[in-house]
Amino acid sequence: MTTLADRYHMTKRLGDGTFGEVLLARKIDTGDKVAIKRMKKKFKTWEEATALREVKALKKLPHPNIIKLREIHRTSFWLFRCEIHHYEPQFRDRYFPEGVIRNIIYQILQGLAFMHRNASMKIREFLDVDSAAA
């Protein structure tokens, strides 16, 4: 049985959030850059891990503006999601030009519309929206 370390070379830590830590890695056999998310929650079974709404949704949502889930690994109760990585460091520490912001918002809305049409997802399922403002 191959491990995550047998398939991916971890290069750096991209960030840490409420639900997991994200690492930049390179797939050893293809050289593809991927983002690997290690979920903070521990899972007792494979079924419990793959039942996550986030995992189930990403498996069935093929769209250019939605992250593509490549693989799922579960080792010692940790769940790892391997996704195609599109990191653009040129805007990391400065303001985005207005045209770039417009394009990013357009892509987010395209992905959101696709999710709503194809997965019956509601905004409240993935955004923390103030009900008074919505």
From TrEMBL:
One function term, GO molecular function aspect: ATP binding
UniProt-annotated binding residues for ATP: K37
Keyword Transmembrane: no
Keywords of this entry: ATP-binding, Kinase, Nucleotide-binding, Transferase
Domain annotation Protein kinase: ranges: 8-134
A Pfam short name: Pkinase
Domain of life of the native organism: Eukaryota
Protein name: Serine/threonine-protein kinase dyf-5
Origin organism lineage: Eukaryota, Metazoa, Ecdysozoa, Nematoda, Chromadorea
Gene: DYF-5_2
